[in-house]
Amino acid sequence: MSADTPIFAIAVAAELAGMHPQTLRQYDRIGLVVPGRTRGGSRRYSQRDIAQLREVAQLSSEGMSLPAIAKLLDLEDEVRTLRRRVVELEHDLREERASRPGVRVFAAGATGSIMAVPSGRRIRRSTEIVLWRPWLNRPEASDDELADDPDDSER
């Protein structure tokens, strides 16, 4: 069961959060903490909802306004979503790198197309420009390679 599974009725959620059920109804009406609903329309709170209710109570007791708390909760949700997306993208990147073990250089062709260039292949500088060459896990470049590399001054 995940922290987002709506399982607690309003009376149980209010008790767990240390609030009156009417406060939970008000927070639902203004969109501060919106629980799931059953088919019959009853509110069902998740563990994450309970944690948010406790956070709202803490912030409110410290003098923060309800609109400010709502904005803070929205930002926390956005951060959580973005972190999940970063994890997904990192996973996709690892899979892509694993599927192309020899690709280490990317270049732009004469037509502007981006292409991956396998390690060890010489790039004709008259028609292609090297855009990116990762230096992580790369054996030290020879002096000849560095002398041929116009981007050497940037390193």
Automatic annotation (TrEMBL):
Signal peptide: none annotated. InterPro entries: DNA-bd_dom_put_sf, MerR-type_HTH_dom, MerR_fam. It comes from the Bacteria. One of its GO terms (molecular function) is DNA binding. Residues 72-99 form a coiled coil. Keywords: Coiled coil, DNA-binding, Stress response. Residues 10-75 form the HTH merR-type domain. The keyword DNA-binding applies. Gene3D superfamilies: 1.10.1660.10. NCBIfam families: HeatShock_HspR. This is Putative heat shock protein HspR. It comes from Microbacterium azadirachtae. The lineage of its organism: Bacteria, Bacillati, Actinomycetota, Actinomycetes, Micrococcales.
